[in-house]
Every structure is written in C-alpha cells, then in structure tokens.
Write a structure and sequence with these properties.
Length: about 240
C-alpha cells in the first residue's frame, strides 16, 4: 500500500514597502527550522555566522527577490524586523542593567514601535558653491567600520561615492583610485569636510529610544537601540 503524502500547508504571502528605497517585497513568515537556525546563530555570538544565517533566511522567505547586498542597510534591517514580527509576533522581553545601581530590569517592548526615518537623507552634498559629491547609501557589503580610524573612514566614503561634480564636469569614481580620492579629501578644509559629514549623519538606521525607570532604585533610564545587531539580540522566541 502506497503511503499518502502529508498535506501541504501553505504560508501566507505578505507585501512590504521598504522605507528607504521604496521597493516592494513579497515574503512569507519564516518557519520553525529557520527560526531554530536564527536562534543557533544568535547563541554562537559570531558576527559572520549571524550575517550568513540572516542572509539565508531572508533569501528563502523572499524567494530570492530581496537582494541582500544591494538594498540599503536600513532597508535590510527594517525588513528583517518585519519578518520577525510576521513570524513570531511583535512582543519581546529582555533584560537591561541600570546605569546607576546595576540592577537588571526586565523590559517588555513591542517591535511595532521601531522605525526607520528616511526623510532626512542627503545624498547630494555641495562642499562649495560649485563642487559637490553624489553618494549612495551603504549596504551590508560595504562592511561599515566603527573604530573611527581616518583610513577606514576615507575608505568607506570612497566606496559610497557615485561621482564628484563641478560647474563644468562630472568626475566618475571609476576613473580615480582610492589614493587619489584620499589626496583630494586631505586638501579640503574643515568646513568642507563638515559638509560631507552631513551625508554621514543623514544615513537612515533602524532605531528606537527606550525610556524606563529602574525597578530597584527608581532612576530614570534611557537607551538608544540602533542597528540590526541590537534588535537581533532580542529573543526570537519570546
């Protein structure tokens, strides 16, 4: 006697508009085996393992239609958060130590309160009346560093430039080396470099300001949760 196949259980198809690029993505919630993979990656505390696991889950849940290394980082983080909400729910519970007395505080939070503000993005920066730089927003492939070293900061800026222009010409990045760009940057004055920082400061990110009172000493507390790495640490199975 031939054994019957177990029935196929269909998953709901959902649609999300990414807040930065405006791209519409169709997706399904992640399933139990994918949730287990995410939990194991979280427990490994290895950044590469976490990134690769998120990449695999997102590719599977979107049928490969979300280009992991091409969408802005803020879009990627926002999508993953919405995928988590659709799959597990918006409520999370986690612990935060008090900055005054060190006591652990159990926080209940809704991920629906987390947002990305893309309204202040500045990708076209005028550093003089005639000279400007057009940037693109960073993706996960840009491997953004946070150590603050000048060499890595310039390397990142170079990777994000689309072109430099003045009243007469457009200078494509592909025509110039990173060293030539570094020399060009080092010949700018402080006020011109500060204008480039307007672009850096306008890069959108996934963030949420958390305000609470310590349950032990009643001290008012504030924490800024920012970036996918912060939200990924929140329990996936809460």
């Amino acid at each position: 006697m031939t054994k019957k196949k177990l029935p196929t259980v269909s998953a709901p198809v959902m649609v999300l508009t990414l807040p930065v690029s405006g791209q519409k993505i169709k997706y399904r919630p992640f399933v139990i085996k994918e949730q287990k993979s995410l939990l194991l990656a979280q427990e490994s505390k290895d950044a590469d393992t976490v990134l690769e696991t998120i990449k695999e889950v997102i590719s599977s849940c979107t049928n490969g239609t979300l280009e992991f290394t091409k969408v802005p980082t803020a879009d990627l983080a926002y999508f993953f958060l919405q995928l988590r909400i659709a799959s597990v729910g918006p409520e999370v519970k986690f612990s935060i130590p008090c900055t005054e007395c060190g006591a652990d505080n159990i926080i209940n939070m809704s991920l629906n309160d987390v947002s990305v503000d893309a309204s202040k993005v500045k990708t076209d920066i005028k550093i003089t009346d005639e000279v400007g730089i057009k940037f693109r927003l960073p993706t996960v492939d840009d491997a953004i560093t946070t150590d603050g070293s000048d060499s890595k900061s310039i390397k990142l800026l170079y990777s994000l430039i689309d072109c430099i222009y003045d009243a007469d010409s457009v200078y494509q990045k592909s025509d110039y080396t990173e060293e030539e760009f570094r020399d060009w940057i080092e010949n700018l004055n402080d006020s011109q470099v500060a204008k480039i920082q307007d672009f850096v400061g306008s890069i959108p990110t996934l963030k949420h300001e958390l305000n609470f009172k310590c349950s032990s000493c009643n001290a008012e507390q504030s924490r800024l949760l920012e970036g996918l790495h912060n939200f990924f640490r929140l329990d996936l199975d809460s």
